[in-house]
């Protein structure tokens, strides 16, 4: 899959069949759309194109709102789109100037002159242009004028996209990673760099890797203890993760993300790892003493190993 941040680089795309949206999560609803997009591209000997915008429109329209939480970074989204077979991914810069383009200007400047669209695959409720003035009927009329085709994505698929996005975020914020997995069709994951910690886990016999997730908008699931799988290079390891403030050993500490690998011995410092959430084990608890905490960690490890033995 080729990635573009400048429309001038897209001129070589063959018979572009385009869909557009944020595609956050690239979840099961999105996957239906991508399947249809690829099918439509093959019908006209063309290539599939996903057009998205960055920064997220909310960041530009509401710059003082810092509550945006997304399921994927742009890098993660690109990797997911590629895994589902998309040929081209265009990340167009969203700005106030861009947001003021009329529906006609958007179609002519971006889709026709910019990308050379052969076909658009959009939902019946697709809106575009300044103040969302353009709708499916507008696009159909402009398609006749500029000589490209429009394929309507069914209402059922579009509604699945909206409902699923909301449910995934809610499920993760509730710690329900199993429901999130059902809607994503893959385990929700975080990527980050291992940074130095205070070494408390090592003192307890459970050395942990402290993970720095550098993208501030990446959604972090609910505080608690999770069974996880950890990708380190080409290897995959079993682990247990704590998201929280470590109430037994710290006072008013900032939230940390720490993972203990059950079947690995080595230094992870400064390495990039991927952590996939398999199941939530329990809430984070304040224990009366470190001894009780250590007993619980041993119980957590036992539960993790049992879970992985039942679900290899």
From TrEMBL:
<keyword id="KW-0511">Multifunctional enzyme</keyword>
<dbReference type="GO" id="GO:0006747">
    <property type="term" value="P:FAD biosynthetic process"/>
</dbReference>
<keyword id="KW-0274">FAD</keyword>
<keyword id="KW-0067">ATP-binding</keyword>
<dbReference type="GO" id="GO:0009398">
    <property type="term" value="P:FMN biosynthetic process"/>
</dbReference>
<dbReference type="Pfam" id="PF06574">
    <property type="entry name" value="FAD_syn"/>
</dbReference>
<dbReference type="GO" id="GO:0009231">
    <property type="term" value="P:riboflavin biosynthetic process"/>
</dbReference>
<dbReference type="InterPro" id="IPR023465">
    <property type="entry name" value="Riboflavin_kinase_dom_sf"/>
</dbReference>
<keyword id="KW-0288">FMN</keyword>
<dbReference type="GO" id="GO:0003919">
    <property type="term" value="F:FMN adenylyltransferase activity"/>
</dbReference>
<feature type="domain" description="Riboflavin kinase">
    <location>
        <begin position="183"/>
        <end position="309"/>
    </location>
</feature>
<dbReference type="InterPro" id="IPR002606">
    <property type="entry name" value="Riboflavin_kinase_bac"/>
</dbReference>
<keyword id="KW-0548">Nucleotidyltransferase</keyword>
<comment type="similarity">
    <text>Belongs to the ribF family.</text>
</comment>
<keyword id="KW-0808">Transferase</keyword>
<keyword id="KW-0285">Flavoprotein</keyword>
<dbReference type="GO" id="GO:0005524">
    <property type="term" value="F:ATP binding"/>
</dbReference>
<dbReference type="GO" id="GO:0008531">
    <property type="term" value="F:riboflavin kinase activity"/>
</dbReference>
<keyword id="KW-0418">Kinase</keyword>
<comment type="pathway">
    <text>Cofactor biosynthesis; FAD biosynthesis; FAD from FMN: step 1/1.</text>
</comment>
<dbReference type="InterPro" id="IPR014729">
    <property type="entry name" value="Rossmann-like_a/b/a_fold"/>
</dbReference>
<dbReference type="Pfam" id="PF01687">
    <property type="entry name" value="Flavokinase"/>
</dbReference>
<keyword id="KW-0547">Nucleotide-binding</keyword>
<protein>
    <recommendedName>
        <fullName>Riboflavin biosynthesis protein</fullName>
        <ecNumber>2.7.1.26</ecNumber>
        <ecNumber>2.7.7.2</ecNumber>
    </recommendedName>
</protein>
<dbReference type="InterPro" id="IPR015864">
    <property type="entry name" value="FAD_synthase"/>
</dbReference>
<comment type="function">
    <text>Catalyzes the phosphorylation of riboflavin to FMN followed by the adenylation of FMN to FAD.</text>
</comment>
<dbReference type="InterPro" id="IPR015865">
    <property type="entry name" value="Riboflavin_kinase_bac/euk"/>
</dbReference>
<dbReference type="InterPro" id="IPR023468">
    <property type="entry name" value="Riboflavin_kinase"/>
</dbReference>
<comment type="pathway">
    <text>Cofactor biosynthesis; FMN biosynthesis; FMN from riboflavin (ATP route): step 1/1.</text>
</comment>
């Amino acid at each position: 899959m080729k990635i573009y941040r400048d429309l001038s680089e897209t001129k070589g795309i063959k018979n572009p069949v385009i869909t557009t949206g944020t595609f956050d999560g690239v979840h099961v609803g999105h996957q239906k759309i991508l399947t249809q997009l690829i099918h439509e591209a093959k019908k006209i000997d063309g290539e599939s194109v996903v057009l998205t915008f960055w920064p997220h429109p909310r960041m530009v329209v509401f710059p003082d709102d810092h509550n945006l939480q997304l399921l994927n970074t742009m890098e993660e989204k690109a990797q997911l789109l590629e895994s589902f077979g998309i040929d081209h991914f265009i990340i167009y810069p969203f700005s106030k100037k861009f947001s003021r383009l009329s529906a006609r200007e958007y179609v002519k400047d971006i889709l026709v002159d910019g990308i050379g669209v052969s076909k658009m695959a959009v939902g019946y409720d697709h809106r575009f242009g300044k103040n969302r003035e353009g709708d499916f009927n507008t696009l159909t009329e402009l398609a006749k004028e500029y000589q490209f085709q429009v394929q309507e994505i069914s209402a059922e698929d579009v509604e699945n996209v909206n409902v699923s996005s909301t449910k995934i975020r809610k499920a993760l914020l509730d710690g329900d990673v199993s429901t999130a997995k059902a809607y994503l069709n893959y385990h929700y994951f975080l990527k980050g760099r291992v940074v130095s910690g205070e070494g408390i886990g090592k003192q307890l016999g459970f050395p942990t890797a402290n993970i720095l997730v550098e993208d501030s908008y990446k959604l972090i699931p609910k505080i608690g203890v999770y069974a996880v799988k950890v990708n380190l290079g080409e290897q995959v390891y079993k682990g247990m993760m704590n998201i929280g403030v470590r109430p037994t050993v710290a006072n008013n500490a900032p939230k940390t993300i720490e993972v203990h690998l059950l079947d690995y011995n080595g230094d992870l410092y400064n390495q990039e790892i991927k952590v996939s959430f398999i199941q939530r084990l329990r809430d984070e608890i304040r224990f009366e003493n470190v001894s009780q905490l250590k007993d619980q960690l041993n119980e957590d490890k036992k539960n993790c190993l049992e879970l992985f033995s039942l679900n290899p």
